[in-house]
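Complex 378.
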Amino acid sequence: MSDRYEIAIVGAGAVGLAAGVGFARAGRRVAVVGTDGARRDGRTVALMETSLQVLERIDLRVLVEDNGAPLIYLRIIDDTGRLLRAPPVTFDSAEIGLSAFGINVESAALVDLIAAEAAKTAGLVRICDNAAAIEQSRIVLADGSFVKADLLIGADGRNSLVRKAAGIDTKEWTYDQTAVTAIFAHDRSHRDTSTEFHTSEGPFTLVPLPGKRSSLVWLCKPARAARLMALDDIDFARAVEDQAQSMLGAMRLDGPRGAVPMGGISVHDVIAPGVALAGEAAHVFPPIGAQGLNLGLRDVADLLEAFSNGVSETGFARYRKGRLNDIAFRTNAVDALNRSLLAGFLPIDAARSMGLTLLGSIGPLRRFVMRQGLGSSR
Ligand SMILES: Cc1cc2nc3c(=O)[nH]c(=O)nc-3n(C[C@H](O)[C@H](O)[C@H](O)COP(=O)(O)OP(=O)(O)OC[C@H]3O[C@@H](n4cnc5c(N)ncnc54)[C@H](O)[C@@H]3O)c2cc1C
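Predicted structure with flavin-adenine dinucleotide bound:
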């Protein structure tokens, strides 16, 4: 048995589902292939204003705003304990004319919310099965049936089958780090402030959720991550509270926790004949500065634009032109910042600490960096 669509998307994570809803709401016939795509590991995503604008275009913005917490202030604290340390830097969204930099929402909740919208969207067919193979722009499902499409979008994450089948080469690397993720309830208000402690093992970040709740992303050595994951809930919460210098008062685990080994993937191209890649199928890097899904949603925006008049060679060329620089710039910037923290080498410490000090004191530089962080200056 075989079904034909104009567009077929492999992967029902946030990127695949958002692209599916976007194309279907623009009147296109689209299939999204994949089982439940939510990662239930305590991970949250901070979606910046530019991503919210992408979601607004496909009528998903209100959904995110109603289920997340606004990030009004971003604070960076140099907690490297090294000789050259910068004073804390706080960015206020009002400085660049915004009421908030973005919204932080539980990753699994976001996928569930978009999936529920997808189920209500005419023109979008959900095929709740995984792709077993890809053969010449044809998706082979586990039961042996096929899905054919003029445009096949690989939104199937870091180990993308679509990418491999299309023969798109990658560069892959690892960091000596694991991201420990969890959600906490706490006694004190987070005051709408995301706080990033820069430690010598990587950033330790607490990001606001609705009420007196926050999410944790703690990039640390794999051995420390293993020790943290082995603790019971009470000792784990205490370790996090200590690392946060009790900034939020007493902390209690309030959801699942997870540990993600850190690495990066960059692709040599985002297109191949009949194929386009989006989200983590096209770029993976550590969660520093909340860039990953924000970049993935810019992939979605560019896909919708490039193929707005149908599937054509011009559309593929346009998508490639829009994506390659943006992806390379974000991947390199996150990599450089992460390595500068890990280096422990005096000249690099000096550059990092001077950079943070300058950010704290020079208004135009602060505003430039804030806009870059939002992904708006491309
Ligand atoms: C600790 C941590 C914190 C993060 N915080 C932020 C943040 O604050 N802000 C931000 O913007 N980003 C953040 N990110 C990045 C963000 O989580 C990712 O960019 C995003 O989840 C990627 O979504 P995706 O849909 O591309 O991929 P995925 O979420 O990996 O989805 C891919 C889907 O494809 C499915 N799939 C795989 N193979 C097949 C197949 N053969 N057939 C069908 N389906 C298949 C998978 O099951 C999965 O459901 C963070 C990442 C980490 C690790």
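The chain has eleven helices and 19 strands.
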